[in-house]
Design the sequence.
């Protein structure tokens, strides 16, 4: 991923420049084109950040996070407002493996009380993903949250199961990537529009 391209795109948008202009650089990560904005429940969301999820040095997916307004504060992302996470799959992955990793991420980043409040939604989440054996390179998995309505998951724009009601499940779910123990720290930073790595302090004392 070229961080300079992502930074340029986000900076241009923050300055009010049109991302559709001919001179605006197109954001592309691992040959995946990332849309600068999307629509959810008749509301336009903008790209907050995007990055690659790798497992044992193998690239699994490109994740892109969309919000009503950009922020680098994970608590603000999780607290309220509609949001969309799109996973662009980079290799064939067994869905059971992916769902298990997500459930593990929810457990690591939420309290026992938080999880108890969404037991039914977590069970439904696991069940709907069990209906699809595998996602392949080029597929997309999308997670939408609309306040007052709930959360929904899609594979290639086909909804999986029913909408999961409640606001709490969305908070629990998005902590997979944005919690204190995210699935990947560099990906968390990129989703927040930050550089993947913090440059080391090269100041030396004599």
Sequence:
């Amino acid at each position: 991923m070229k961080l300079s391209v992502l930074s340029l795109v986000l900076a241009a948008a923050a300055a009010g420049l049109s991302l559709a202009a001919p001179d605006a650089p197109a954001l592309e990560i691992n040959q995946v084109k990332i849309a600068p904005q999307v629509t959810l429940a008749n509301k336009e969301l903008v790209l907050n950040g995007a990055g690659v999820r790798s497992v044992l040095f193998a690239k699994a997916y490109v994740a892109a996070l969309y919000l009503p307004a950009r922020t680098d504060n994970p608590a603000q992302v999780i607290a309220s407002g509609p949001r969309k996470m799109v996973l662009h799959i980079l290799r064939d992955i067994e869905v059971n493996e992916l769902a298990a990793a997500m459930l593990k991420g929810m457990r690591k980043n939420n309290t026992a009380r938080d999880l108890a409040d969404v037991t039914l939604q977590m069970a439904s989440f696991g069940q709907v993903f069990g209906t699809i054996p595998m996602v392949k390179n080029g597929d997309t998995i999308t997670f939408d949250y609309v306040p007052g309505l709930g959360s929904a998951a899609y594979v290639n724009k086909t909804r999986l199961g029913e909408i999961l009601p409640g606001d709490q499940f969305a908070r629990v779910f998005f902590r997979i990537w944005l919690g204190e123990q995210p699935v990947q720290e560099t990906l968390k930073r990129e989703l927040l529009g930050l550089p993947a790595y913090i440059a080391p302090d090269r100041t030396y004392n004599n």
